[in-house]
Amino acid sequence: MPFHWLPDVPWQVLATLPLLIFAAYTVFGATGFGSSVIAVPALAHAFPLTFAVPLVTALDCVATGTASFRQWRHARLDEFRRLVPTMLLGIVAGTTLLVRLPRAPALLALGVFVSFYGIYILAGPRQRSTIHERWAWPIGLAGGAFSVLFGTGGPIYMVYLSARIHDKGELRATSSLLITSSVLMRAVVFIGSGLMFQDTLLSTAALLAPAMLIGYVAGNRLHHALSRNGVMKLIAVLLVGNGALLIGRAIAMWHAD
Q1: For residue 58, what pLDDT is reported?
Q2: Which domain holds residue 154?
Q3: What is the total count of domains within the chain?
Q4: Does residue 61 lie within any of the structural domains?
Q5: pLDDT, tens digit, for every residue of 194-210?
Q6: What's the rounded Cα separation, in Å, for the pair 59 and 33?
Q7: Please, which residues have CB within 8 angstroms of residue 170's CB and are 6 or more apart in sequence?
């Protein structure tokens, strides 16, 4: 590889990275989550998770901070405060499990979970119900753990938030604020462990930053063009598609073993 500041992967992979990042952050701009759940499973086909998750985390630090700065006034701080304590516990647990937990079963569980939730949304409108606030505890714990292990805590948080918040602007703002907090905590973990300073990781993130920013702006415009039902359908399609990717990745890992 003549460029030592780029990952040592085929040029076809490098060429698709900006498109992948653009798509991931377009969805994030429209929904308030989804960058990691799109980017990490796709990146994991060419990179180890120990590279893919910190890479997306580095990009998320800019994207989520920008989103939260613009939207935090619309966030439901009561719901945010309910999720944060157990999210912290989940991040601690995820850090402990990072090098111990078999990844294939965990990826499979997440893939099945988000796929079924996406199908549940796509099944059609039903009487609107609000889940009890006590669900914030297991949701925060699971989301925090998966955010460290796989960078994909957003869909888990959305299960709770979308059932508690029915205004699309408040939903996106609360999700963005929560994910910003999760990303910053995750970045601290990866800096402390040295994973954020792997060869070519930060240089790759810097090269992909323009695609991330353009995608975020495009997604923000898309959000204003969609109704709440449109936003929820976009979230559902995202969950089903990436749940399938996660399941496929888990099966591939099992076969590799």
Answers
A1: 93
A2: 27-256
A3: 1
A4: yes
A5: 889 998 999 999 999 99
A6: 13
A7: 74, 75, 76
